[in-house]
Design goal:
Length: 216
Amino acid sequence: MLALAGHDIIEAADGRDALVKALETPPHFVVTETRLPIMDGYALCEILRQDRLTHAVPILVVTSEGRAERLARVRAAGASAVLVKPVKIDAILDQMKRLIESSGGSGNGQAAAPPIGTPPPRVDVAKDVGGRVRTTLSKTHQRFDTTAPPATPPLLHCPGCDAALTYQYSHIGGVSSRHPEQWDYYLCPRSCGTFEYRQRTRRVRRAAETPVPTLR
């Protein structure tokens, strides 16, 4: 799917093989799992971040390990973004595009991608009926989606089937820039749907629809 989208692919058989190939020919982008033979994805991220040739290369981790502590560990290891399986190829391609653009498209150590929890400057504007330009609420209140929220998402179970919910991402927003709030979104592995956890009220409810976030 990545090749069909126009990317040149260098495939590695395991974590050590990926490290060797990345250091021999620094790539523009790295996509990896956490569970890899010989060298896991955590170690791979850490070493790539420490080497001068690859320290600024964007790294996207696509993993089945959706627990909050695992997500925190992979972000601490140096991942630029994390997606939890199951995930659609469109979401992967969108993340790749965003991170490559954020790094300047070079992938050669000249410009590092910003931390995933940092909301970038927004340039979107809208015009009201009178033609006057007004700033969107996303810009004014710094609303954004992220997998690195300020408050650690809790471990939750599905209200319907009691299965452990898989953390997906968080939405940071609020009624004003001084009073941001955090909503955490989870997916039930038994197809009960998407659930929303509001940090302020500490309540879980079924999300009205499955959001498709643009992660920051």
